[in-house]
Structure formats: C-alpha cells, structure tokens
Design goal:
Elements lengths: L5 H7 L5 H10 L1 H11 L1 H4 L6 E2 L7 H4 L2 E3 L5 E3 L3 E5 L5 E5 L4 E2 L9 H5 L7 H28 L1 H21 L3 H29 L5 H26 L3 H9 L8 H4 L4 H6 L3 H15 L5 H17 L12 H25 L9 H10 L1 H15 L1 H20 L13
Antiparallel strand pairs: 1-6, 2-3, 4-5
Helix pairs in contact: 2-9, 3-9, 3-10, 7-8, 7-9, 8-9, 8-11, 10-17, 10-18, 18-19
C-alpha cells in the first residue's frame, strides 16, 4: 500500500490511534470555553428584581405604583414612580432618582452595575449582539490568517487574546469599554473555536470525523453549558464569574509544547520535514511501524502540492457552480439553526423555575442526543437527517407558539 495523501497516512497510523485522540481531546477544550463565553450573558446580564429609588420620607406603596405584567400578574412598577407636586397631588412619572436592587448583595450583574433597565434595557442585549458580530468578523479573517500563518499560531494567539480580554472585562468599569471588549472576545472565540475545529478535522481521517467533531465536540460544548450553570450558581457576582470563566484558559499555554501544527497545513506549505517528524512521533505513540515507502509517498505529495499551490480566498468557493450552491444551501441551514439554537439558549434561563437547574439540564440532556444523532447520521446519511431534523424542529417551534404562558408548578432544585 502506498499513501496518496495525508488522510491515508492517518489511516495507516490507526484511525483511533492514541496520538490523534490525545490531541483531539485537548483541542475539545475550546468547545467548553466557547460555551462559557457565548452563553455567559445569560448570567452576567441576568435581570435582578428592581424598582425606582424613592425618598425615605415616603413609604414603598406611597412611592411605587402597582401594575399588571404581560401575564396579568400584579406587582410593583419597575420603571415608574409616584411624585407629588407642590399642592400634594400624586402623579405617575418615570424614575427620577435611579433604581434600587433589593437583592444587590446576593446577586450582582451588569444590569445592576450600569442600570441597564427600562429605557436602557436594550443595552443588555447589545452585549450579546456585539459579541456575535465579533464572531462573524473573526470567523472570516481568522480563517484566512490560519491558512497563511498556521493553525497552531492562530489558535494559541486567539486563546491568549481571549484570556487578556476576559480579565479586562472583569476589572474595567465603563460600559462602553465593556462593549468593545465583548467584540474582541467574539473575535478571539472565532479564532480558537473555528481554528480548533479545523485542527481536529485535520487530525483525523474522514470516516472518523463524525466522532471527533460532531459527537465529542457536541458533548464538550454541552458539558461547558452545565459547568457554566454550576459556576454561575456558586458565584453570584458577575465580575468574579467572568474571572472564573476566563482563568482556566491559562493552562492552554502548555499547548505550545503539547499540540503540534496541522500536518495538512505543513504539507500544503511544503514543510515536509516537520510533517514527517509528526508522523514518526504518532507512529511511535500508536505502536505502528512506519515504512520508508509511506514517507516517500508523502514527500511526493508535498512536491505535487508545491507545484499546484496558489493563493486562495473564501470568494474562490463561489467560482465553482456546485460548490457555490452547496455553500449557499448549507450556509442558510447553518444560519437558521444558529438563530434558533442561540435564540433558545440565551433565554432558557428565563423559563419558570430554578434558572441554574434549567440551564444545566439544557446542556446535559443534549449529550445523549449527540450520540443518538451520530448513529442516525451514520445509518441514514447526512442529507436525509438534515432535512428530517429541520422539519421536526420547525414543527416543534410552531407547537411552542400555542403552549400556555403560565405553568402550574415551575421546575425547582427541590
């Protein structure tokens, strides 16, 4: 047997080799951090109880009107208060002296920090929108950078950027600076998230990628959701929570020595000696004998690539009709799935019941689903399962519209 490309070399070294899976498992950490920071706003921006601040010479009922919420429940107004003119007449007006947060010492979020309520409530959601914009920009530009400068360099640089930005978010006190940092956090997450995904892809032969990417990648993401819920339950101050979500990334510094560069990238850029060294080490760890003919075949692959290689951009995809249609269709499906998934994930903590338990269950219940989905995809194929799940998802979402807005017994931790 003579290998024709890098994927066949990985097959020769053993598709489930210890070397490959050791690298894949380390790279799966990026999925956990991705879940941490994409969904952290669920708790960083959790809305605590609040009402208008009022003068001490008036009682609560003399200062705060009671109103019905959208579910018909009666409660104190959050954005209006009673004021008294010179003749003693009581008038209803917007909050004049700021807001009071009764649970401030128990739960402190960016909302209570910067009063992101009432007319400024949109600023809370803006923190998530800005981060998503950073992910969009980063996914495009970082991918190009990883093609030009190497997967490993971009991955480690992005992780370092995430660490620095995460620390700054926890210590700086200006809202607009926080917004700018959220954008940079999105860029960083795109860097280590997308590049980490590519590195895992290129570490495994095609027939094993469904496990290394889809199953274990999904499990790592959902484990990150559950850990996020636990940390948020234990740490009620948003600044300390931000630090807790960021500091674990420091250990990825060790990846400089532990994680090799992508062999695909090395071969594409004609760096045969480095690629050969990685394959020899993988063969040693996996207990496989690597004959010279395999390495010679790889060198032939390198020389062929060197003569054919030219600079490509993302726009080259659209020059080929089949690739263009495939990219547009899958891109639209990804857009729809992302909009629905993140739309649900970012409000799941607002459902009735214990928000930490609900959020943790949201992640944990998806772990067996990842395994089941992999079995069905392997059995019936990707296209059929994509269509079936999109239709099912649409039906379930339409069904959610007719569900009652009240529950008789919320989910609690009791």
């Amino acid at each position: 047997m003579v290998v024709r490309n890098v994927d066949e070399m990985w097959m020769r070294l053993g598709p489930f080799g210890r070397y490959q899976w050791r690298i894949v498992v380390m790279l799966l950490v990026s999925q956990i951090f991705w879940a941490f920071h994409v969904l952290s706003s669920t708790f960083l921006a959790r809305a605590p109880p609040y009402h208008c601040s009022f003068l001490s010479n008036y009682t609560f009922n003399e200062s705060i009107p009671w109103v019905e919420d959208k579910n018909g429940n009666l409660g104190p107004s959050k954005c209006e208060m009673y004021v008294y003119n010179s003749s003693g007449e009581r008038l209803q007006a917007p909050c004049e002296s700021g807001w009071t947060y009764p649970d401030f010492n128990k739960h402190h979020s960016i909302i209570s920090e910067w009063n992101l309520v009432c007319q400024d409530a949109f600023r809370s959601g803006l923190t998530t929108s800005i981060m998503m914009a950073g992910i969009m920009v980063g996914s495009w530009k970082v991918s190009e950078a990883s093609d030009n400068f190497g997967r490993k360099l971009v991955y480690l640089s992005s992780t370092l950027l995430m660490f620095v930005v995460g620390i700054l978010m926890a210590v700086l006190t200006n809202y607009w600076v926080f917004i700018c940092l959220r954008f940079l956090m999105g860029v960083a997450m795109a860097g280590f998230g997308v590049t980490g995904y590519v590195m895992r892809t290129e570490q495994l032969p095609p027939n094993e990628r469904i496990y290394g990417l889809f199953v274990f990648g999904g499990m790592a993401w959902n484990l990150g959701i559950a850990i996020l819920a636990l940390l948020a339950f234990l740490i009620q101050d948003w600044r300390y929570l931000q630090l807790a979500l960021t500091l674990p990334a420091l250990f990825t510094v060790s990846y400089y020595w532990l994680v090799p560069e992508s062999v695909h990238w090395l071969v594409t850029h004609g760096r045969y000696e480095e690629a050969e060294a990685i394959f020899k080490k993988a063969a040693q760890v996996n207990g496989v004998t690597l004959e010279d003919e395999y390495l010679q075949a790889l060198q032939h692959e390198v020389s062929k690539v060197e003569t054919q290689r030219k600079k490509m951009t993302v726009f080259d995809i659209f020059k080929h009709p089949r690739l263009r249609v495939f990219t547009l269709v899958t891109g639209y499906c990804w857009f729809v799935c992302s909009a629905v998934y993140y739309g649900i994930a970012l409000i799941i903590g607002k459902l009735p019941g214990n928000p930490y338990l609900v959020f943790a269950l949201f992640g944990l219940t998806q772990i067996p689903i990842d395994l089941i989905a992999a079995v069905f995809v392997t059995r019936f194929g990707r296209r059929i399962m994509l269509c079936v799940n999109l239709v099912m998802g649409g039906v379930f979402l339409l069904g959610a519209v007719v569900l009652p807005t009240k529950t008789s017994k919320p989910l609690t931790a009791d």
